[in-house]
Amino acid sequence: MRTVTRLAGFAVGLAAIFGTTYGIGRVVDRAPVVEGRHDGDAAPATGEHDETADRLPGGLLVSERGYTLEPVDAPADEFAFRIAGPDGRPVTRYDVAHDKQMHLIVARRDLSGFRHVHPELAPDGTWRVDTPLAGPGQWRAFADFAPTGGEPLTLGVDVTVPGELTERPLPAPATSTTVDGYTVTLTGTPQPGRTSPLTLTVSRDGQPVTDLEPYLGAYGHLVALRRGDLAYLHVHPDGTPGDGRTRPGPAVTFLAEVPSAGSYRLYLDFQHGGRVHTAEFTVVTGGAPTGAAAPTPSGPAPTGGADHGTPGHGHN
Ligand SMILES: [Cu+2]
């Protein structure tokens, strides 16, 4: 299988998220807050393409540019938080982005349990939602929002749900997956540090799905989380419903770029039949995989498969 090769191309989609969703300013305005990611001297485990602080992905910080994500005590069946603004008070005014004022994404640290939900804002600035945290684990919650008068931000915070913890291994890389009876395939040639198209194609019962429904203003929403630190990348499609050129499937194309070599879990939300479905993929791109996500060869590898599980082998 040429899984690794094709996945390498895929990773590109992730980084484009920044440019398309948040604007370049968001990317370059960051202060250097992460140690050991400059110029490769620190030899980050993510491989040969080191990201620098001025391209720090979203979601790694709980507080940024004066805004802080603060979980709030809530009943067990609810998740609540607020965003403290530069003046220390909860922010109560937000711009609408992709139909919502707040996008809350959660996933366990092992990249399982992904959910994307939309909390309700109370007048005092508290956001509440039926808890998306599906069971015990070490969770990461991402608040993706734009305070009115400020720039878009993604803040992240750890949340522990006590109980029996079972770490799930990251599924092996694949270019096709199924969810709710749909088959979703992934094509593209991503490379860290470069933008390129990434296409997801939806079919059901062997037939292309050509009547995808707009969901939050697009035919698909793609979130990628980097294994190891859960760096957050949110990519929107190249084209919007009703723009005269974007078709409602079966293909949804994203322009994306991954910030570094490594393993990523991709989550594609799309709507069909009145329901939102989430297709998940593991992608390993460039350089050394960051861990167990490297596929384990079993039996003789077909042509092109010899790269599997070879840490440090570049795929560019
Ligand atoms: Cu959302």
Write a structural description.
With 316 residues, the chain is mainly β. Helix content is 8%, strand content 35%. The protein is built from three helices and 18 strands. The protein has helices at 3-10, 12-22, 24-28, and strands spanning 63-64, 67-72, 78-84, 102-108, 115-117, 120-121, 126-130, 137-145, 153-161, 176-179, 182-188, 196-204, 207-208, 221-226, 232-235, 251-256, 262-272, 275-285. β4 (102-108) and β5 (115-117) form a beta hairpin. The chain is globular. The two termini are 17 Å apart. The structure holds copper (II) ion (CU).
Short description:
By secondary structure, the chain is mainly beta. The protein has helices at residues 3-10, 12-22, 24-28; strands at 63-64, 67-72, 78-84, 102-108, 115-117, 120-121, 126-130, 137-145, 153-161, 176-179, 182-188, 196-204, 207-208, 221-226, 232-235, 251-256, 262-272, 275-285. It has a five-stranded antiparallel β-sheet with strand order 1-2-3-7-6, with no helix packed on it.
